[in-house]
Design a protein that fits this description.
Helix content: 40-55%
Structural class: alpha+beta
Strand order of the largest sheet: 3-2-1-6-5-4
Radius of gyration: 15 Å
Strand content: 15-25%
Number of strands: 6
Largest sheet: 6 strands, antiparallel
Order of helices and strands: HHEEEHEHHEEHH
Shape: globular
Number of helices: 7
């Protein structure tokens, strides 16, 4: 956590904090593909704020939030989504072929909740079967640093306007 705290104090924001969060996630539960998706509930859109594979998953643009079982689970009930096979991923994500081509066949989406609303998700992908119950339980430890990263990003964006 010290590296994360030091990163937050850095002047290279928000990238220093996002990279430190990725390192913390990797140390805690392991991750191959890591993205941060910010949620704008008022406008009903999501935006990728960070990706450790920007060639495959760029950090530009917004997409409308669709009403589907994933959204009901992660944003509605504020529950972690886990898929441990490419078939489970394919049932929810249309980009499953790209995910598989990157060597990932399991997924954990951790909702970050602040003031009663999901403000973003930590999206963690790895080999098939990677997200065991033990790793899912450890992921709970990532909610506070995840919230700090999203809140810092929002603070910086509002300050720039």
């Amino acid at each position: 956590m010290t590296d994360f705290n030091q990163a937050m104090a850095s002047t290279d924001q928000p990238m220093a904090t996002f990279k430190a969060l990725e390192a913390l996630v990797d140390k805690t539960i392991g991750v191959k593909l890591f993205t941060l998706m910010g949620i704008d509930n008022e406008r009903g859109v999501a935006r990728r704020n960070y990706s450790n594979m920007p060639d495959a998953y760029a950090t530009s643009g917004e997409k409308p939030i669709e009403n589907n079982p994933w959204t009901e689970q992660v944003q509605g009930r504020q529950e972690t989504f886990v898929a441990n096979s490419i078939e489970e991923i394919a049932a929810v994500f249309p980009d499953h072929e790209l995910i598989k081509s990157l060597g990932c066949e399991s997924c954990l989406n951790l909702p970050i909740v602040v003031n009663g609303s999901v403000i973003g998700t930590l999206n963690c992908l790895h080999n098939a079967g990677h997200f065991t119950p033990e790793r899912v339980a450890k992921a709970e430890r990532l909610k506070q640093p995840g919230a700090l990263a999203f809140l810092l990003n929002d603070y910086l964006n509002k300050g720039a306007n």
